[in-house]
Design a protein that fits this description.
The protein has 130 residues and is mainly β. The protein contains no helices and nine strands. A four-stranded antiparallel beta sheet has the order 3-2-7-8, with no helix packed on it.
């Protein structure tokens, strides 16, 4: 949902119980790998048509061996614009972004990325920071 007004002094409700958000199921694909050092962080980003990039997943890194894992959807993400008190929510699939992600690892101020396509199995990823 784009355009949701956010303030630190009030709640913004995007729907009510009368207008539930019901999303379709999508197949998922495992994305896993390792990062050195194990103190790094890893997240999955998805760029939507039009250029907006959103964080869709974050995974803890195993402090002992640097392993991480995600389960990412292979179907098209859906989006809609924020409307106050909507009578209905109409989500539209963004087919151009389907199954395409960027896995980002960060450590000590440095960032490394690897693109992944989850339409089929993804080989283990490896990130190493000096």
């Amino acid at each position: 949902m784009t355009g949701v007004p956010v303030t630190d002094t009030a709640y913004t409700y995007v729907n009510s119980a009368a207008v539930p958000i019901a999303l379709a199921a999508t197949p998922v694909q495992a994305v896993n790998g390792s990062v050195v050092p194990a103190t790094a962080t890893v997240r999955a980003l998805q760029t939507l048509t039009g250029g907006l990039t959103v964080q869709v997943a974050w995974a803890p890194v195993d402090a002992g061996n640097g392993a991480f894992a995600f389960a990412l959807g292979a179907g098209a993400p859906v989006r809609t614009a924020y409307v106050p008190n909507p009578a209905a929510l109409a989500f539209v699939p963004d087919t151009g972004a389907a199954a395409h992600y960027t896995i980002e690892a960060a450590a000590a101020g440095a960032i490394k990325t690897q693109p992944v396509d989850v339409t089929s199995a993804v080989p283990p990823l490896a990130f190493t920071f000096p």
